[in-house]
Amino acid sequence: MLTSPPNLLTFVRIGLIPVLVGLFFVEGAWARWLACAVYTIAASTDYLDGWLARNLDQHSRLGRWLDPVADKLLVAATVLLLVAFDRAPVLPALVILMREILISGLREYLAEARLVLPVSRLAKWKTAVQMTALGFLIVGDAGPWWLFVPDVGFWGLWAAAILTIVTGWDYIHRSVAHMLADRAEGPLRPARGISPTR
User: Fold this and answer.
1) What is the pTM of this model?
2) Which domain, by its residues, includes 142?
């Protein structure tokens, strides 16, 4: 399954990250727009690989592990670069990164306990807002003034941070409930549902 279409798209997403990083160090408005295009393509592969996996029935353990890792690498690299180049506010960026680390730890625990939690609709909205805001921030003031690109990115990232706190709390609450239920019931039960990608 290493060369299945969903996994190949995930590898493409990871491979585009160094290209995105390099473009941040290139001067000129064209570099910002190209970086936004690379980022958009990389972010789009997240939806496409999941769609292909479902429609081609090509799920694999590698894909379940690699897909969320690729997402986090893309988001973390983009957020850190935006803050480093003074194109994004620090506080919401910190909230987003801390949530990713926290949820990664929880998922590792739940995976060992053979428990899974489905992605909530609000979490999907959080991801959409976050990805859109990051794209606007990449372009920044290289965008046309009448689109208010930096402002849309700025407030979009704050909105994503608020949704990050809400969905993170929901995930923690549900995880703890499962942990306590398992402790009361004794032996671990088989995994249920679909492993979350966010």
Assistant:
1) 0.86
2) 5-185
